[in-house]
Amino acid sequence: MSDHTNKDGPREMARIGKDTPSRPAGRLTRIKLSDQITEEIRRRISREGLHPGDRLPNERSLMEYYGCSKGTIREALKALEVEGLLRMVSGPNGGPEVQAASIDIVTQQLRRYLHFQKLDFAQVYELRQTLEVVLARNVTGRLTEEHLTRLAQNIALCDAANQAQDRERVRTAETEFHDILCEASDNVMLIFMCRFLNSMLRDLVSYRSEAMVEHDHFGAHNVDAHRDLLAAFRARDADAAAAIMSEHMDCASRFMRKLDASFHMDRILTR
Amino acid sequence: MSDHTNKDGPREMARIGKDTPSRPAGRLTRIKLSDQITEEIRRRISREGLHPGDRLPNERSLMEYYGCSKGTIREALKALEVEGLLRMVSGPNGGPEVQAASIDIVTQQLRRYLHFQKLDFAQVYELRQTLEVVLARNVTGRLTEEHLTRLAQNIALCDAANQAQDRERVRTAETEFHDILCEASDNVMLIFMCRFLNSMLRDLVSYRSEAMVEHDHFGAHNVDAHRDLLAAFRARDADAAAAIMSEHMDCASRFMRKLDASFHMDRILTR
DNA sequence: CTAGATTTGTTCGTATGTATC
DNA sequence: TGATACATACGAACAAATCTA
Protein backbone atom coordinates (compact mmCIF):
# COMPACT_ATOMS: atom_id res chain seq x y z
CA MET A 1 0.00 0.00 0.00
CA SER A 2 2.30 2.66 1.23
CA ASP A 3 5.19 3.34 -1.08
CA HIS A 4 8.19 4.69 0.73
CA THR A 5 9.97 6.50 -2.02
CA ASN A 6 7.59 9.05 -3.47
CA LYS A 7 3.95 9.90 -3.54
CA ASP A 8 1.55 12.08 -5.33
CA GLY A 9 0.35 15.19 -3.55
CA PRO A 10 1.77 18.68 -3.45
CA ARG A 11 5.29 17.85 -2.48
CA GLU A 12 7.95 18.18 -5.11
CA MET A 13 11.31 16.67 -4.34
CA ALA A 14 13.09 19.87 -5.15
CA ARG A 15 16.82 19.72 -4.81
CA ILE A 16 18.11 23.10 -3.92
CA GLY A 17 21.51 24.50 -3.14
CA LYS A 18 21.87 24.77 0.61
CA ASP A 19 25.00 26.39 1.93
CA THR A 20 26.89 24.40 4.50
CA PRO A 21 29.15 27.21 5.69
CA SER A 22 31.48 25.54 8.17
CA ARG A 23 31.78 22.28 6.32
CA PRO A 24 34.39 22.02 3.58
CA ALA A 25 32.02 20.77 0.90
CA GLY A 26 29.14 23.14 0.21
CA ARG A 27 27.16 20.57 -1.76
CA LEU A 28 23.67 20.11 -3.02
CA THR A 29 21.43 18.73 -0.30
CA ARG A 30 17.92 17.46 -0.41
CA ILE A 31 15.75 19.89 1.50
CA LYS A 32 14.20 18.21 4.47
CA LEU A 33 10.65 17.05 3.95
CA SER A 34 9.49 18.73 7.14
CA ASP A 35 10.99 22.02 6.00
CA GLN A 36 9.19 21.78 2.67
CA ILE A 37 5.92 21.26 4.49
CA THR A 38 6.67 24.13 6.86
CA GLU A 39 7.10 26.40 3.87
CA GLU A 40 3.93 25.07 2.27
CA ILE A 41 1.87 25.80 5.36
CA ARG A 42 3.39 29.27 5.72
CA ARG A 43 2.38 30.04 2.15
CA ARG A 44 -1.04 28.68 2.89
CA ILE A 45 -1.47 30.99 5.87
CA SER A 46 -0.40 33.90 3.72
CA ARG A 47 -2.36 32.95 0.60
CA GLU A 48 -5.63 32.17 2.35
CA GLY A 49 -5.20 35.18 4.59
CA LEU A 50 -5.77 33.18 7.75
CA HIS A 51 -6.37 35.14 10.92
CA PRO A 52 -5.45 34.45 14.53
CA GLY A 53 -7.87 31.87 15.88
CA ASP A 54 -8.38 30.06 12.58
CA ARG A 55 -7.72 26.34 12.64
CA LEU A 56 -5.54 24.31 10.32
CA PRO A 57 -6.40 20.67 9.55
CA ASN A 58 -5.38 18.30 12.31
CA GLU A 59 -2.26 16.15 12.24
CA ARG A 60 -4.00 13.15 10.72
CA SER A 61 -5.41 15.16 7.82
CA LEU A 62 -2.08 16.83 7.19
CA MET A 63 -0.34 13.44 7.21
CA GLU A 64 -2.72 12.23 4.54
CA TYR A 65 -2.58 15.42 2.52
CA TYR A 66 1.19 15.62 2.42
CA GLY A 67 1.59 11.86 2.32
CA CYS A 68 4.03 11.68 5.17
CA SER A 69 4.29 10.34 8.68
CA LYS A 70 3.25 11.85 11.97
CA GLY A 71 6.78 12.69 13.07
CA THR A 72 7.44 14.67 9.93
CA ILE A 73 4.23 16.68 10.26
CA ARG A 74 4.97 17.31 13.90
CA GLU A 75 8.40 18.67 13.04
CA ALA A 76 6.89 20.98 10.45
CA LEU A 77 4.26 22.22 12.90
CA LYS A 78 6.91 22.60 15.57
CA ALA A 79 8.82 25.00 13.34
CA LEU A 80 5.73 27.14 12.84
CA GLU A 81 5.05 27.00 16.55
CA VAL A 82 8.53 28.29 17.30
CA GLU A 83 8.01 31.05 14.76
CA GLY A 84 4.94 32.04 16.74
CA LEU A 85 2.53 31.50 13.85
CA LEU A 86 0.77 28.51 15.43
CA ARG A 87 -0.09 27.00 18.72
CA MET A 88 -1.17 23.42 19.21
CA VAL A 89 -4.51 22.69 20.84
CA SER A 90 -5.25 19.18 22.01
CA GLY A 91 -8.59 17.57 22.55
CA PRO A 92 -11.69 17.41 20.35
CA ASN A 93 -11.86 20.20 17.79
CA GLY A 94 -8.20 20.71 18.54
CA GLY A 95 -5.39 21.05 16.08
CA PRO A 96 -3.00 23.77 15.00
CA GLU A 97 -4.45 27.23 15.63
CA VAL A 98 -3.13 30.26 13.78
CA GLN A 99 -1.64 32.87 16.05
CA ALA A 100 -0.32 36.35 15.52
CA ALA A 101 3.42 36.19 16.17
CA SER A 102 3.90 37.96 19.48
CA ILE A 103 6.32 40.73 20.23
CA ASP A 104 7.89 38.53 22.90
CA ILE A 105 8.87 35.85 20.42
CA VAL A 106 10.56 38.39 18.16
CA THR A 107 12.26 39.95 21.18
CA GLN A 108 13.67 36.58 22.19
CA GLN A 109 14.81 35.94 18.63
CA LEU A 110 16.60 39.28 18.42
CA ARG A 111 18.26 38.60 21.76
CA ARG A 112 19.50 35.27 20.48
CA TYR A 113 21.07 37.12 17.58
CA LEU A 114 22.77 39.58 19.89
CA HIS A 115 24.15 36.78 22.07
CA PHE A 116 26.83 36.15 19.49
CA GLN A 117 27.50 39.82 18.76
CA LYS A 118 29.59 42.40 20.52
CA LEU A 119 26.93 44.47 22.24
CA ASP A 120 27.72 47.11 24.78
CA PHE A 121 25.30 49.54 26.25
CA ALA A 122 26.81 52.56 24.53
CA GLN A 123 25.24 51.13 21.37
CA VAL A 124 21.88 50.80 23.05
CA TYR A 125 21.93 54.40 24.20
CA GLU A 126 23.12 55.67 20.85
CA LEU A 127 19.83 54.31 19.54
CA ARG A 128 17.60 55.01 22.48
CA GLN A 129 18.71 58.61 22.51
CA THR A 130 17.05 59.23 19.18
CA LEU A 131 14.26 56.64 19.20
CA GLU A 132 12.73 57.79 22.48
CA VAL A 133 12.67 61.34 21.18
CA VAL A 134 10.82 60.19 18.07
CA LEU A 135 8.47 58.30 20.36
CA ALA A 136 7.85 61.35 22.55
CA ARG A 137 6.85 63.36 19.50
CA ASN A 138 4.77 60.52 18.14
CA VAL A 139 2.64 60.03 21.25
CA THR A 140 2.13 63.68 22.10
CA GLY A 141 -1.55 64.40 21.50
CA ARG A 142 -2.22 60.68 21.15
CA LEU A 143 -2.03 59.82 24.84
CA THR A 144 -5.49 59.34 26.29
CA GLU A 145 -6.58 60.52 29.71
CA GLU A 146 -6.21 56.95 30.92
CA HIS A 147 -2.62 56.82 29.70
CA LEU A 148 -1.84 60.08 31.46
CA THR A 149 -3.23 58.92 34.80
CA ARG A 150 -1.27 55.68 34.51
CA LEU A 151 1.88 57.68 33.84
CA ALA A 152 1.16 59.76 36.95
CA GLN A 153 0.64 56.60 39.00
CA ASN A 154 3.87 55.21 37.65
CA ILE A 155 5.77 58.31 38.71
CA ALA A 156 4.37 57.96 42.22
CA LEU A 157 5.38 54.31 42.24
CA CYS A 158 8.84 55.18 41.01
CA ASP A 159 9.17 57.85 43.69
CA ALA A 160 8.19 55.40 46.41
CA ALA A 161 10.61 52.76 45.20
CA ASN A 162 13.33 55.37 45.22
CA GLN A 163 12.57 56.32 48.83
CA ALA A 164 12.75 52.65 49.77
CA GLN A 165 16.02 52.34 47.85
CA ASP A 166 14.63 49.21 46.23
CA ARG A 167 16.67 49.25 43.04
CA GLU A 168 14.93 46.33 41.42
CA ARG A 169 11.53 48.00 41.70
CA VAL A 170 12.99 51.32 40.63
CA ARG A 171 14.30 49.78 37.47
CA THR A 172 11.10 47.96 36.49
CA ALA A 173 8.99 51.04 37.26
CA GLU A 174 11.30 53.33 35.31
CA THR A 175 11.16 51.19 32.16
CA GLU A 176 7.41 50.76 32.54
CA PHE A 177 6.98 54.50 32.11
CA HIS A 178 8.49 54.24 28.67
CA ASP A 179 6.49 51.10 27.88
CA ILE A 180 3.28 53.00 28.60
CA LEU A 181 4.35 55.60 26.07
CA CYS A 182 4.72 52.83 23.51
CA GLU A 183 1.11 51.81 24.06
CA ALA A 184 -0.02 55.17 22.75
CA SER A 185 2.08 55.07 19.59
CA ASP A 186 0.70 54.02 16.22
CA ASN A 187 4.08 53.09 14.73
CA VAL A 188 4.47 49.35 15.20
CA MET A 189 8.14 49.32 14.23
CA LEU A 190 8.94 52.17 16.58
CA ILE A 191 7.02 50.42 19.34
CA PHE A 192 8.92 47.22 18.79
CA MET A 193 12.32 48.88 18.86
CA CYS A 194 11.63 51.02 21.91
CA ARG A 195 10.11 48.13 23.83
CA PHE A 196 13.03 45.95 22.88
CA LEU A 197 15.53 48.45 24.20
CA ASN A 198 13.45 48.91 27.35
CA SER A 199 13.39 45.18 27.96
CA MET A 200 17.15 44.96 27.57
CA LEU A 201 17.65 47.67 30.16
CA ARG A 202 15.11 46.09 32.49
CA ASP A 203 16.36 42.50 32.32
CA LEU A 204 20.04 42.57 31.55
CA VAL A 205 21.80 45.57 33.05
CA SER A 206 24.16 45.23 35.97
CA TYR A 207 26.08 47.98 37.70
CA ARG A 208 29.66 47.51 38.73
CA SER A 209 29.53 50.59 40.92
CA GLU A 210 27.49 50.35 44.09
CA ALA A 211 27.73 54.05 45.00
CA MET A 212 24.43 54.73 46.73
CA VAL A 213 24.63 58.47 46.21
CA GLU A 214 24.87 58.10 42.46
CA HIS A 215 22.01 55.65 42.34
CA ASP A 216 19.87 58.04 44.35
CA HIS A 217 20.72 60.93 42.08
CA PHE A 218 19.88 58.79 39.08
CA GLY A 219 16.52 57.86 40.54
CA ALA A 220 15.71 61.45 41.46
CA HIS A 221 16.58 62.62 37.97
CA ASN A 222 14.31 60.02 36.40
CA VAL A 223 11.33 61.04 38.51
CA ASP A 224 11.92 64.71 37.68
CA ALA A 225 12.29 64.02 33.98
CA HIS A 226 9.16 61.89 33.91
CA ARG A 227 7.21 64.59 35.74
CA ASP A 228 8.33 67.18 33.20
CA LEU A 229 7.46 64.85 30.35
CA LEU A 230 3.99 64.28 31.74
CA ALA A 231 3.44 68.04 31.95
CA ALA A 232 4.51 68.45 28.33
CA PHE A 233 2.20 65.62 27.26
CA ARG A 234 -0.70 67.22 29.15
CA ALA A 235 0.04 70.50 27.39
CA ARG A 236 0.23 68.62 24.07
CA ASP A 237 3.53 70.34 23.42
CA ALA A 238 5.50 67.97 21.15
CA ASP A 239 8.58 70.17 20.92
CA ALA A 240 8.82 70.45 24.69
CA ALA A 241 8.32 66.71 25.13
CA ALA A 242 11.02 65.98 22.58
CA ALA A 243 13.44 68.40 24.22
CA ILE A 244 12.84 66.98 27.70
CA MET A 245 13.17 63.42 26.45
CA SER A 246 16.41 64.22 24.66
CA GLU A 247 17.83 65.74 27.83
CA HIS A 248 16.50 62.79 29.84
CA MET A 249 18.26 60.27 27.60
CA ASP A 250 21.49 62.25 27.71
CA CYS A 251 21.43 62.25 31.49
CA ALA A 252 20.52 58.57 31.72
CA SER A 253 23.35 57.68 29.39
CA ARG A 254 25.82 59.65 31.53
CA PHE A 255 24.53 58.09 34.75
CA MET A 256 24.87 54.61 33.27
CA ARG A 257 28.44 55.34 32.31
CA LYS A 258 29.22 56.73 35.73
CA LEU A 259 27.71 53.67 37.42
CA ASP A 260 29.78 51.49 35.10
CA ALA A 261 26.78 49.65 33.70
CA SER A 262 27.08 46.65 31.44
CA PHE A 263 24.92 43.86 30.06
CA HIS A 264 24.64 40.37 31.49
CA MET A 265 25.39 38.82 28.12
CA ASP A 266 25.28 35.39 29.75
CA ARG A 267 21.56 35.81 30.47
CA ILE A 268 20.57 37.05 27.06
CA LEU A 269 19.82 33.61 25.61
CA THR A 270 17.72 32.27 28.42
CA ARG A 271 15.75 35.31 29.54
CA MET B 1 15.21 -1.58 31.27
CA SER B 2 13.38 1.42 30.01
CA ASP B 3 10.64 2.62 32.31
CA HIS B 4 7.92 4.52 30.55
CA THR B 5 6.59 6.75 33.24
CA ASN B 6 9.44 8.77 34.65
CA LYS B 7 13.18 8.72 34.89
CA ASP B 8 15.98 10.29 36.74
CA GLY B 9 18.05 12.83 34.85
CA PRO B 10 17.70 16.56 34.59
CA ARG B 11 14.08 16.77 33.66
CA GLU B 12 11.68 18.03 36.24
CA MET B 13 8.01 17.67 35.49
CA ALA B 14 7.39 21.30 36.22
CA ARG B 15 3.79 22.34 35.86
CA ILE B 16 3.60 25.94 34.90
CA GLY B 17 0.81 28.33 34.05
CA LYS B 18 0.51 28.62 30.32
CA ASP B 19 -1.93 31.14 28.98
CA THR B 20 -4.34 29.84 26.40
CA PRO B 21 -5.66 33.15 25.16
CA SER B 22 -8.35 32.23 22.66
CA ARG B 23 -9.61 29.22 24.54
CA PRO B 24 -12.15 29.74 27.30
CA ALA B 25 -10.28 27.84 29.99
CA GLY B 26 -6.81 29.22 30.72
CA ARG B 27 -5.77 26.22 32.80
CA LEU B 28 -2.60 24.75 34.16
CA THR B 29 -0.90 22.67 31.53
CA ARG B 30 2.07 20.41 31.65
CA ILE B 31 4.82 22.01 29.64
CA LYS B 32 5.71 19.85 26.68
CA LEU B 33 8.68 17.60 27.26
CA SER B 34 10.29 18.66 24.02
CA ASP B 35 9.99 22.30 25.08
CA GLN B 36 11.63 21.55 28.41
CA ILE B 37 14.53 19.93 26.62
CA THR B 38 14.78 22.85 24.20
CA GLU B 39 15.12 25.18 27.15
CA GLU B 40 17.69 22.88 28.79
CA ILE B 41 19.87 22.83 25.69
CA ARG B 42 19.59 26.60 25.30
CA ARG B 43 20.79 27.02 28.87
CA ARG B 44 23.58 24.58 28.13
CA ILE B 45 24.75 26.59 25.14
CA SER B 46 24.69 29.70 27.26
CA ARG B 47 26.23 28.18 30.40
CA GLU B 48 29.05 26.35 28.66
CA GLY B 49 29.64 29.33 26.41
CA LEU B 50 29.52 27.22 23.26
CA HIS B 51 30.72 28.86 20.08
CA PRO B 52 29.61 28.48 16.48
CA GLY B 53 31.06 25.24 15.15
CA ASP B 54 30.96 23.39 18.47
CA ARG B 55 29.12 20.09 18.43
CA LEU B 56 26.40 18.92 20.76
CA PRO B 57 26.00 15.21 21.58
CA ASN B 58 24.22 13.29 18.84
CA GLU B 59 20.56 12.34 18.96
CA ARG B 60 21.16 8.94 20.53
CA SER B 61 23.23 10.41 23.38
CA LEU B 62 20.67 13.12 23.99
CA MET B 63 17.91 10.50 24.04
CA GLU B 64 19.75 8.61 26.74
CA TYR B 65 20.71 11.72 28.70
CA TYR B 66 17.22 13.18 28.80
CA GLY B 67 15.59 9.76 28.98
CA CYS B 68 13.21 10.35 26.13
CA SER B 69 12.58 9.12 22.63
CA LYS B 70 13.96 10.15 19.29
CA GLY B 71 10.88 12.04 18.20
CA THR B 72 10.95 14.21 21.29
CA ILE B 73 14.64 15.02 20.90
CA ARG B 74 14.11 15.76 17.26
CA GLU B 75 11.33 18.21 18.07
CA ALA B 76 13.54 19.92 20.62
CA LEU B 77 16.42 20.18 18.18
CA LYS B 78 14.04 21.37 15.48
CA ALA B 79 13.04 24.28 17.68
CA LEU B 80 16.67 25.29 18.19
CA GLU B 81 17.27 24.89 14.48
CA VAL B 82 14.41 27.26 13.70
CA GLU B 83 15.80 29.70 16.23
CA GLY B 84 19.04 29.61 14.27
CA LEU B 85 21.15 28.33 17.16
CA LEU B 86 21.81 24.91 15.62
CA ARG B 87 22.12 23.15 12.35
CA MET B 88 21.98 19.42 11.89
CA VAL B 89 24.92 17.62 10.33
CA SER B 90 24.53 14.02 9.18
CA GLY B 91 27.19 11.43 8.69
CA PRO B 92 30.07 10.36 10.94
CA ASN B 93 31.15 13.05 13.37
CA GLY B 94 27.82 14.62 12.64
CA GLY B 95 25.24 15.82 15.09
CA PRO B 96 23.82 19.17 16.09
CA GLU B 97 26.31 21.97 15.44
CA VAL B 98 26.07 25.29 17.26
CA GLN B 99 25.51 28.25 14.95
CA ALA B 100 25.42 31.97 15.47
CA ALA B 101 21.85 33.07 14.84
CA SER B 102 21.97 34.92 11.55
CA ILE B 103 20.57 38.35 10.83
CA ASP B 104 18.40 36.81 8.14
CA ILE B 105 16.57 34.58 10.60
CA VAL B 106 15.81 37.52 12.87
CA THR B 107 14.72 39.56 9.88
CA GLN B 108 12.29 36.86 8.84
CA GLN B 109 10.99 36.61 12.39
CA LEU B 110 10.39 40.35 12.62
CA ARG B 111 8.60 40.26 9.28
CA ARG B 112 6.35 37.50 10.54
CA TYR B 113 5.46 39.74 13.45
CA LEU B 114 4.65 42.64 11.15
CA HIS B 115 2.44 40.44 8.96
CA PHE B 116 -0.32 40.71 11.53
CA GLN B 117 0.24 44.40 12.31
CA LYS B 118 -0.92 47.53 10.57
CA LEU B 119 2.27 48.63 8.90
CA ASP B 120 2.37 51.43 6.39
CA PHE B 121 5.47 52.93 5.00
CA ALA B 122 5.02 56.29 6.71
CA GLN B 123 6.04 54.39 9.85
CA VAL B 124 9.11 53.01 8.14
CA TYR B 125 10.23 56.45 7.06
CA GLU B 126 9.50 58.00 10.41
CA LEU B 127 12.18 55.62 11.71
CA ARG B 128 14.52 55.59 8.77
CA GLN B 129 14.63 59.35 8.79
CA THR B 130 16.41 59.35 12.14
CA LEU B 131 18.19 56.01 12.06
CA GLU B 132 20.01 56.64 8.81
CA VAL B 133 21.21 59.98 10.17
CA VAL B 134 22.59 58.24 13.25
CA LEU B 135 24.20 55.72 10.91
CA ALA B 136 25.78 58.46 8.77
CA ARG B 137 27.37 59.98 11.85
CA ASN B 138 28.42 56.60 13.15
CA VAL B 139 30.27 55.50 10.03
CA THR B 140 31.97 58.81 9.24
CA GLY B 141 35.66 58.27 9.85
CA ARG B 142 35.10 54.54 10.13
CA LEU B 143 34.64 53.84 6.43
CA THR B 144 37.77 52.29 4.96
CA GLU B 145 39.20 53.12 1.56
CA GLU B 146 37.69 49.87 0.31
CA HIS B 147 34.25 50.88 1.53
CA LEU B 148 34.57 54.24 -0.17
CA THR B 149 35.52 52.74 -3.53
CA ARG B 150 32.61 50.31 -3.30
CA LEU B 151 30.28 53.21 -2.59
CA ALA B 152 31.64 54.98 -5.66
CA GLN B 153 31.11 51.86 -7.76
CA ASN B 154 27.60 51.54 -6.42
CA ILE B 155 26.80 55.12 -7.43
CA ALA B 156 28.02 54.39 -10.96
CA LEU B 157 25.87 51.25 -11.04
CA CYS B 158 22.89 53.19 -9.78
CA ASP B 159 23.43 55.85 -12.41
CA ALA B 160 23.60 53.25 -15.19
CA ALA B 161 20.44 51.52 -13.99
CA ASN B 162 18.71 54.87 -13.98
CA GLN B 163 19.74 55.57 -17.56
CA ALA B 164 18.39 52.17 -18.55
CA GLN B 165 15.18 52.90 -16.64
CA ASP B 166 15.49 49.46 -15.06
CA ARG B 167 13.58 50.13 -11.86
CA GLU B 168 14.28 46.77 -10.29
CA ARG B 169 18.04 47.25 -10.56
CA VAL B 170 17.71 50.86 -9.43
CA ARG B 171 15.98 49.78 -6.29
CA THR B 172 18.42 47.03 -5.35
CA ALA B 173 21.40 49.26 -6.06
CA GLU B 174 19.95 52.15 -4.08
CA THR B 175 19.39 50.04 -0.98
CA GLU B 176 22.81 48.42 -1.37
CA PHE B 177 24.42 51.82 -0.88
CA HIS B 178 22.88 51.99 2.56
CA ASP B 179 23.78 48.39 3.30
CA ILE B 180 27.42 49.16 2.59
CA LEU B 181 27.25 51.93 5.16
CA CYS B 182 26.00 49.37 7.69
CA GLU B 183 29.08 47.26 7.11
CA ALA B 184 31.24 50.06 8.46
CA SER B 185 29.22 50.60 11.62
CA ASP B 186 30.18 49.14 14.98
CA ASN B 187 26.68 49.32 16.45
CA VAL B 188 25.11 45.90 15.94
CA MET B 189 21.62 47.05 16.92
CA LEU B 190 21.77 50.02 14.59
CA ILE B 191 23.05 47.78 11.83
CA PHE B 192 20.21 45.35 12.32
CA MET B 193 17.53 48.02 12.29
CA CYS B 194 18.86 49.87 9.26
CA ARG B 195 19.39 46.67 7.31
CA PHE B 196 15.91 45.53 8.23
CA LEU B 197 14.34 48.73 6.95
CA ASN B 198 16.47 48.53 3.81
CA SER B 199 15.34 44.98 3.13
CA MET B 200 11.70 45.98 3.54
CA LEU B 201 12.11 48.74 0.99
CA ARG B 202 14.01 46.45 -1.37
CA ASP B 203 11.68 43.45 -1.24
CA LEU B 204 8.20 44.69 -0.48
CA VAL B 205 7.51 48.12 -1.93
CA SER B 206 5.18 48.60 -4.83
CA TYR B 207 4.22 51.86 -6.52
CA ARG B 208 0.68 52.60 -7.56
CA SER B 209 1.83 55.48 -9.70
CA GLU B 210 3.69 54.65 -12.88
CA ALA B 211 4.65 58.25 -13.73
CA MET B 212 8.00 57.85 -15.47
CA VAL B 213 9.02 61.46 -14.91
CA GLU B 214 8.66 61.16 -11.15
CA HIS B 215 10.59 57.89 -11.07
CA ASP B 216 13.40 59.50 -13.08
CA HIS B 217 13.52 62.49 -10.73
CA PHE B 218 13.62 60.16 -7.76
CA GLY B 219 16.49 58.19 -9.24
CA ALA B 220 18.41 61.34 -10.11
CA HIS B 221 17.95 62.68 -6.60
CA ASN B 222 19.27 59.47 -5.07
CA VAL B 223 22.41 59.51 -7.18
CA ASP B 224 23.04 63.14 -6.31
CA ALA B 225 22.48 62.57 -2.60
CA HIS B 226 24.73 59.54 -2.58
CA ARG B 227 27.46 61.49 -4.36
CA ASP B 228 27.22 64.27 -1.79
CA LEU B 229 27.29 61.74 1.03
CA LEU B 230 30.39 60.10 -0.39
CA ALA B 231 32.13 63.48 -0.54
CA ALA B 232 31.25 64.17 3.10
CA PHE B 233 32.52 60.73 4.12
CA ARG B 234 35.76 61.32 2.23
CA ALA B 235 36.14 64.66 4.06
CA ARG B 236 35.35 62.90 7.34
CA ASP B 237 32.77 65.58 8.03
CA ALA B 238 30.15 63.94 10.26
CA ASP B 239 27.94 67.02 10.53
CA ALA B 240 27.80 67.42 6.77
CA ALA B 241 27.08 63.72 6.29
CA ALA B 242 24.27 63.85 8.82
CA ALA B 243 22.76 66.95 7.22
CA ILE B 244 22.89 65.47 3.73
CA MET B 245 21.43 62.18 4.92
CA SER B 246 18.61 63.97 6.73
CA GLU B 247 17.76 65.90 3.58
CA HIS B 248 18.08 62.71 1.53
CA MET B 249 15.59 60.87 3.72
CA ASP B 250 13.17 63.79 3.65
CA CYS B 251 13.24 63.80 -0.13
CA ALA B 252 12.93 60.05 -0.40
CA SER B 253 9.94 60.07 1.90
CA ARG B 254 8.25 62.76 -0.21
CA PHE B 255 8.96 60.91 -3.44
CA MET B 256 7.52 57.71 -2.03
CA ARG B 257 4.37 59.54 -1.03
CA LYS B 258 4.08 61.14 -4.41
CA LEU B 259 4.53 57.79 -6.16
CA ASP B 260 1.86 56.35 -3.87
CA ALA B 261 4.10 53.62 -2.51
CA SER B 262 2.86 50.83 -0.27
CA PHE B 263 4.01 47.47 1.05
CA HIS B 264 3.14 44.09 -0.42
CA MET B 265 1.94 42.80 2.93
CA ASP B 266 0.92 39.55 1.27
CA ARG B 267 4.56 38.74 0.53
CA ILE B 268 5.91 39.54 3.96
CA LEU B 269 5.49 36.04 5.39
CA THR B 270 7.02 34.10 2.57
CA ARG B 271 9.87 36.33 1.42
C1' DC C 1 -19.93 15.32 37.47
C1' DT C 2 -18.77 11.32 35.00
C1' DA C 3 -17.84 8.76 30.71
C1' DG C 4 -16.60 8.52 26.18
C1' DA C 5 -14.74 10.59 22.00
C1' DT C 6 -11.26 13.19 19.76
C1' DT C 7 -6.87 15.03 19.12
C1' DT C 8 -2.21 16.09 20.49
C1' DG C 9 2.01 14.21 22.94
C1' DT C 10 5.33 10.50 23.43
C1' DT C 11 7.38 6.01 22.80
C1' DC C 12 9.47 2.00 20.41
C1' DG C 13 11.14 -0.45 16.45
C1' DT C 14 12.75 -0.33 11.88
C1' DA C 15 14.37 1.17 7.46
C1' DT C 16 16.77 4.43 4.41
C1' DG C 17 19.66 8.26 2.93
C1' DT C 18 24.07 10.63 3.50
C1' DA C 19 28.62 11.94 4.65
C1' DT C 20 33.23 10.33 6.55
C1' DC C 21 36.96 7.17 6.77
C1' DT D 1 34.90 0.41 -2.57
C1' DG D 2 32.83 -0.78 1.35
C1' DA D 3 32.03 -0.01 6.43
C1' DT D 4 30.55 3.10 9.84
C1' DA D 5 28.00 6.71 12.15
C1' DC D 6 24.81 9.75 11.90
C1' DA D 7 20.35 12.18 10.56
C1' DT D 8 15.91 11.42 8.20
C1' DA D 9 11.60 9.10 7.69
C1' DC D 10 8.00 5.53 8.40
C1' DG D 11 4.35 3.07 11.24
C1' DA D 12 1.96 1.30 15.10
C1' DA D 13 0.84 1.85 19.57
C1' DC D 14 -0.19 4.09 24.02
C1' DA D 15 -0.57 8.27 27.27
C1' DA D 16 -2.43 12.65 28.30
C1' DA D 17 -5.37 16.52 27.55
C1' DT D 18 -9.84 18.36 26.67
C1' DC D 19 -14.32 18.83 24.64
C1' DT D 20 -19.23 17.06 24.63
C1' DA D 21 -23.09 14.48 25.88
From TrEMBL, chains A, B:
Residues 1-21 have a biased composition (Basic and acidic residues). SUPFAM superfamilies: GntR ligand-binding domain-like, Winged helix' DNA-binding domain. The keyword Transcription applies. InterPro entries: GntR_C, TF_FadR/GntR_C, Tscrpt_reg_HTH_GntR, WH-like_DNA-bd_sf, WH_DNA-bd_sf. The keyword Transcription regulation applies. Keywords: DNA-binding, Transcription, Transcription regulation. Residues 1-26 are annotated as: Disordered. PANTHER family: TRANSCRIPTIONAL REGULATOR, GNTR FAMILY (PTHR43537), UXU OPERON TRANSCRIPTIONAL REGULATOR (PTHR43537:SF5). This is FadR/GntR family transcriptional regulator. It comes from Thioclava arctica.
